[in-house]
Design goal:
The protein is an alpha+beta fold. The chain contains 4 helices and 4 strands; from the N terminus they run βββααβαα. It folds into 2 domains: about 70 residues, no CATH class; about 70 residues. A 4-stranded antiparallel β-sheet has the order 1-2-3-4, with no helix packed on it.
Length: about 140
């Protein structure tokens, strides 16, 4: 069974191919450079995957992972957790998210200050009316 995992390793995007052939585990590394699009990953798989994995590499002999039948609902939950844990894929998107959060914080701070100011003004008006009533006006 072969798996390809693409991840960001500062400053490059890297693809790691893990091959599990009859209990022998082999790993290959490919550097994509900038963030690869889906088309670039597909082109890599179609064009470079087989030549890369056919290179002679010493593998590690390991025990096969225990395969057990997984409940479909549990599998769906785990897949949703993994896809949600992946997070933002580009630094630009991360920067946009941070900027949006900063704007929200600034807006909340401003709204809170305006609300407190309006409440203080209403309190002062109430106190002024009470003083006026007390003086008989």
């Amino acid at each position: 069974m072969n798996t390809l995992t693409v991840y960001f390793e500062d400053p490059w995007w890297v693809g790691v191919i893990v091959c599990d052939d009859a209990g022998t585990l082999r790993a290959y590394r490919h550097i994509f450079g900038s963030e690869p699009s889906s088309e670039e990953v597909l082109t890599f798989v179609l064009r470079d995957f087989i030549p890369l994995t056919s290179q002679p590499v010493t593998g590690i002999v390991g025990e096969p992972a225990a395969t057990r039948r997984l409940n479909p609902k549990r599998a769906a939950r785990e897949a949703a957790q993994l896809s949600g844990a992946r997070g933002i894929s580009t630094k630009a998107q991360e920067a946009l998210r941070v900027a949006r959060e900063a704007e929200v914080q600034a807006r909340q701070t401003q709204t809170r200050a305006e609300r407190e100011q309006a409440e203080a003004q209403r309190w002062e008006q109430t106190r002024a009316r009470a003083r006026a009533r007390h003086r008989g006006r």
